[in-house]
UniProtKB/TrEMBL annotation:
UniProt cross-references to PANTHER family, sorted A to Z: NA+/H+ ANTIPORTER-RELATED (PTHR43478), NA+_H+ ANTIPORTER NHAC-LIKE C-TERMINAL DOMAIN-CONTAINING PROTEIN (PTHR43478:SF1)
GO cellular component: plasma membrane
Membrane topology of the entry: Multi-pass membrane protein
Species: Blastocystis hominis
Protein name as catalogued: Na+/H+ antiporter NhaC-like C-terminal domain-containing protein
Transmembrane segments: 103-120, 140-165, 172-189, 195-213, 272-296, 316-335, 378-400, 416-436, 456-473, 493-513, 584-601, 607-628
Length: 714
């Protein structure tokens, strides 16, 4: 124990000792400061460079950007947003100085892109659990698309709804919703740049094939050999089966080649689009040498299952939906089964001229921009495109560079989109070498055709861009797929119903997202985990159910890339394609669901399941074919208001058919005139005569009031 006197002395000396320590500390710091050189003003840029070099091998994409910004600011970006915003101007200024010195000619573009890029980093867009609200953006997009008939505006509205939900959940400022939309749009377009290049080049190739006269020459050649509707429809099925390598390539190529033949045989563009779309999407799930098979095998491997391609092959016998769709397509063509909106489009196509809907540039007669070509001007580029595609897929898969890589492995691992872009570019070069020396096209005309093709595909690219943004909002930010996947885990589902539940849930998810491949990555790991813990023997049927539900949503959705690409080459709208094919797909969906129920309760017995499914499918088709003609026709009565409306082809129609009829008005109502004449001839009201003169003949024979009374139905 310290004596009281000594303690008093120590207390008196404490301030002196403390002052002495502080003096020594300050003196030491001054000495060290003199020895240590001052940091240069550009230390921030060097720190950024060092951090990127340090973490580039361990972090990627957004994680690397967030790490760099967090370390520069000295804290977690999510920890204190207000303080991080204080360093925003410093970071932007430093980036401006570095980039402007390097690229002085691109000041404007850098000024526009840097704030977007840094806003993306600083907002730290990590996914959240959106819950049931994650279903709201695609639901808003679909409802608005039906109401407004504007796809781009509807999807963008859904995107903004999703970003607003995200900003509210993350407690961010309102202006972050705008920056998130812009950032997602920029990121998705940069990720899908190969697809954009492919679509642009393919648009140029399509216009070149048309302007060179190849498409028209093939149309004339095919008309002489395929003279029936069934022959044309079976040609579409066969060609779509042959182009199994990729659904994008399949849809665009088959539709371009067969469109003139379908017009000549009076097949509606809606039915041709349905046949091509159904076969192109589903055939990829039955062939192990396709881009879909490669993606599925990769997801199976990532889920921890051995033998990705062998596991994919084992799912083929249980993929009831895919096989039923193809079987149903053949049944529709053989028995001429049309109902709903498809029947109305088909009835109109049967009596309309070969040059429909105000598009004279696509008729059989040559236009000013077209030349007299030959069939080879179409077939040779198509063959070259197919050959180059296979070659570049093998190249990107490593078959030509690595002797240890087998043919099948290379085909599985090849980059399909990059291969399609390169093959289209090479095909364009071959077309130039084939057409310009023969003076079939001049060099300037060739370049103008490519530009015209790029403009032709511009609306498609815009729709795809906003659809990709919607996918980013739902899948990457709000976790729509994860939320739907947790519903299966949350509820205790009987083992026999696991494939059925997965099939329906994945179908709904793919329909909302408009992308089958997103569902592969979400649901294949969930399905494998559940089946391995509950019922390993149900793994193959459950994975097949995931694949079948994904392809249903990809084909039926308004947001699907294949839907948008196919419609871009056909003379139909996204809405008309959607409403004509949906009843058929829903019918097959119900039949497939019942088949999966039978499969589950028979302990995955393939024979019983297939027999039950085929019997249900055939009975449904036959019963519907017998019942439908006796149902009330969906086409309502149509009336003319006055003689001027009759001449102009404008009509007022009850209920939903007004939009349908208006979509076909063109060239002084030629189609309407033909429709009315066919009806009046059939009823014996009008005698044989010219189409153009029949309104006057009708008026002179019956008078104005009686004539209007007779024109009640098409």
């Amino acid at each position: 124990m310290i004596p009281a006197e000594k303690r008093k002395i120590i207390n008196k000396l404490k301030p002196v000792i403390k002052k002495e320590k502080n003096f020594k500390k300050e003196k030491k710091e001054k000495v060290e400061k003199k020895k240590k050189p001052e940091q240069p003003e550009d230390s921030l840029a060097k720190r950024v460079e060092r951090l990127i070099t340090l973490h580039k091998n361990t972090l990627e994409g957004d994680a690397l950007k967030d790490k760099v910004v967090a370390l520069i600011c000295g804290r977690d970006p999510l920890e204190d947003e207000g303080k991080i915003r204080e360093t925003f101007d410093k970071v932007i200024t430093m980036c401006y100085l570095c980039l402007f010195d390097t690229f002085p000619r691109y000041t404007f573009f850098i000024s526009a892109y840097i704030p977007i890029y840094m806003m993306w980093s600083l907002t730290a867009m990590e996914p959240i659990d959106g819950g049931i609200l994650s279903l709201l953006p695609p639901l808003v997009a679909l409802i608005l698309a039906f109401i407004t008939k504007e796809v781009i505006t509807s999807i963008l509205s859904g995107v903004f709804v999703g970003t607003i939900i995200y900003t509210i959940k993350k407690h961010l400022a309102w202006y972050n919703a705008i920056s998130i939309v812009i950032s997602l749009l920029v990121e998705k377009m940069s990720e899908e740049m190969e697809m954009i290049i492919f679509i642009t080049l393919l648009g140029g190739l399509i216009i070149i094939l048309k302007n060179s006269g190849g498409s028209r020459a093939y149309g004339k050649w095919a008309i002489q050999r395929v003279k029936s509707r069934k022959g044309t429809e079976f040609s579409a099925i066969l060609m779509a089966c042959l182009f199994f390598v990729d659904d994008y390539f399949n849809c665009l190529t088959t539709s371009t080649v067969l469109k003139p033949l379908a017009k000549a045989n009076h097949i509606s563009m809606e039915k041709l689009a349905f046949i091509i779309h159904a076969v192109a999407n589903n055939i990829c799930l039955l062939v192990p040498f396709s881009s879909w098979a490669a993606a599925i095998a990769s997801n199976i491997k990532d889920a921890g299952l051995s033998g990705g391609i062998s596991m994919f092959i084992s799912t083929i016998p249980y993929n009831f939906y895919t096989v039923f769709v193809l079987f149903f397509i053949v049944l529709i063509v053989l028995c001429d089964i049309d109902f709903g909106a498809m029947k109305r489009y088909e009835e109109l196509a049967k009596i309309q001229p070969s040059c429909p809907r105000g598009r004279p540039d696509d008729c059989m007669s040559p236009t000013e921009s077209e030349k007299e070509g030959s069939v080879c001007d179409l077939l040779i580029p198509i063959v070259l495109l197919i050959g180059f595609t296979f070659l570049f897929i093998l190249c990107t898969g490593g078959y030509l560079t690595d002797p240890s890589v087998s043919f099948i492995t290379a085909f599985m691992n090849g980059d399909a989109v990059l291969s399609l872009s390169m093959s289209t570019l090479c095909t364009l070069a071959c077309c130039a070498a084939m057409l310009i020396p023969r003076k079939q096209m001049t060099f300037n005309a060739f370049v103008e055709s490519v530009k015209e093709g790029a403009q032709y595909m511009a609306p498609t690219i815009i729709i795809l861009a906003v659809a990709w943004t919607m996918s980013g909002v739902t899948n990457e930010l709000l976790g729509t797929g994860e939320y739907l996947g947790t519903l299966i885990i949350r509820f205790h589902i009987p083992v026999a119903l696991i494939p059925t539940v997965f099939f329906l849930l994945v179908a709904v998810t793919a329909f909302a997202l408009g992308n089958a491949w997103c569902c592969f990555g979400i649901f294949i790991p969930i399905a494998s985990e559940i089946c391995q813990t509950t019922s390993p023997e149900s793994l193959a049927p459950t994975l097949a159910a995931v694949l079948g539900g994904s392809v249903f949503g990809d084909q039926a959705s308004l947001l699907s890339e294949t839907t948008i690409l196919l419609v871009s080459t056909m003379e139909c709208t996204i809405q008309s394609h959607f409403k004509t094919q949906l009843p058929y797909l829903l019918m097959v969906l119900v039949i497939s669901t019942l088949t999966y129920v039978v499969c589950g309760f028979t302990k995955n017995n393939l024979l019983i399941s297939w027999l039950a499914g085929l019997v249900i499918l055939i009975i449904t088709a036959v019963v519907w074919t017998l019942i439908y003609p006796h149902l009330k026709s969906s086409q309502r009565d149509m009336y003319f208001d006055n003689e001027d409306d009759m001449k102009k082809g404008l009509c007022s129609q009850k209920e939903e058919d007004e939009e349908f009829i208006k979509s076909f008005m063109y060239n002084d109502s030629l189609i309407l005139s033909v429709c009315l004449k066919q009806k009046l001839l059939h009823d014996g009201i009008l005698g044989e005569g010219s189409v153009a003169g029949f309104p006057g003949e009708l008026k002179s024979r019956f008078g104005r009031g009686q004539a209007l009374g007779k024109c009640t139905k098409i």
